[in-house]
Specification:
alpha/beta, two-stranded parallel ribbon, 12 helices, 47% helix, 13% strand, flat
């Protein structure tokens, strides 16, 4: 949610408050008028709800009466105090409740986490479940080169629910936190740090030294991750974690791949994928989206000469380098096209009618005089 959305929400909420205030003032005014109407019709003052029926009003007390009342109130107060002491903690609790103290969810959550830590609840639960059927949960570990965000917290909560349920249904569930140390996020940070522009810079530096630099930052935010995940209430082992850069982890991945290959489940295919010219490697969707932003993309409008008359089709493209490989130029059967004469250029052209005049079109509104429509047609 950007700044403009937040400002709009605040303005909307402010309008709600103003509307409620206006409704309250209107209701109070209406209530006063109803009381006046009651008095006019009955000849009696409106009985206020806090006055009990049949109760006589007390006359102003004299000095002697005031002292007597003070003594009675003092006795009553001392009696209530003794009564509260006899009730013990219950009386204290009632006093707190009547005092209007607010319940704090964050504070209670922190107290619960501290209690879990004091009794080592997670490790104790694992010891109690030893020997039970094992439940394996395959987790996709996050990158430690960035801070946790909402997506991590949501997925982590779901993972915690699944593993807790398995534990509570009679399974042994070892939960170890993992770190993804591979991929472009790590290399991207090192490239920025060392001003590396391409593979040739890595080769000049040396692959071993480059890998060492990558390893040095993979756990940059591990402390923040542990603090956030623990505060979330998720039970998982950070002390016995795993990292994808460990040789035995990589060997296990290659072993799994070999099992799939031996069973004929691996095949060579072709797929259009985003490609990094700087790194000379294909990118995953996740990697390609990391640096997504709006840009002004240059484009060209190309003329395609008709073979049977002196006219040309106009086609717009942002990738003119693909034109030599194009086999045909297609039109939509339901769209409206126009043949027109460009007076300034002295050419007869054919284009989509809706793209002829206006902002971002072939001609601006001021250039209409330079265009003569010759014919309209469907594609």
């Amino acid at each position: 949610m950007d700044e403009s959305d937040l400002l709009k929400e605040v303005a909307d909420q402010g309008q709600v408050v103003r509307d409620l205030k206006a409704q309250m003032e209107e209701a109070v005014s209406k209530l006063k008028q109803m009381k006046l109407d009651f008095t006019e019709k009955t000849g009696k003052p409106y009985p206020e709800p806090n006055k009990k029926k049949g109760k006589k009003e007390k006359k102003p007390a004299g000095e002697g009466d005031k002292k007597q009342q003070q003594q009675q109130q003092k006795k009553k107060k001392n009696g209530n105090k003794k009564k509260g002491d006899n009730n013990g903690s219950k009386g204290g609790k009632q006093k707190k409740e009547s005092g209007g103290e607010r319940f704090s969810f964050p504070k209670t959550e922190e107290e619960m986490i501290n209690f879990w830590e004091s009794i080592d609840a997670f490790q104790t639960s694992l010891k109690f479940s030893e020997g039970k059927p094992e439940f394996n949960f395959y987790d996709g570990p996050p990158f430690a080169t960035g801070l946790p965000h909402y997506g991590h917290l949501l997925a982590g909560t779901i993972k915690d629910v699944v593993t807790r349920f398995a534990h509570q249904t009679g399974h042994y569930v070892s939960r170890r936190f993992g770190w993804d140390c591979h991929g472009l996020p790590v290399e991207y940070e090192i490239d920025k740090k060392l001003n590396i522009k391409g593979p040739q810079d890595v080769e000049a530096m040396g692959i071993a030294k480059y890998n060492a630099e990558c390893r040095s930052i993979v756990m940059r935010y591990s402390g923040e991750w542990k603090q956030t995940v623990t505060r979330l209430g998720r039970w998982i082992d950070f002390d016995n974690d795993y990292k994808t850069m460990y040789p035995w982890f990589m060997e296990s991945v290659w072993w799994v791949f070999k099992q799939l290959f031996d069973q004929g489940l691996v095949y060579r295919g072709y797929k259009v994928m985003p490609f990094s010219t700087a790194l000379s490697t294909p990118l995953s969707n996740f990697e390609a989206n990391q640096d997504m932003h709006d840009v002004n993309d240059p484009s060209v409008t190309v003329m395609f000469k008709l073979v049977d008359e002196d006219a040309s089709f106009l086609a717009w493209t942002t990738t003119p380098w693909t034109l030599p490989s194009n086999l045909a130029l297609c039109v939509h059967p339901e769209f409206d096209y126009v043949k027109f004469n460009d007076k300034k250029r002295g050419r007869t052209l054919i284009a989509l009618k809706s793209r002829l005049f206006g902002k971002g079109c072939l001609y601006s509104e001021e250039e209409k005089e330079d265009v003569e429509i010759l014919e309209e047609m469907k594609g």
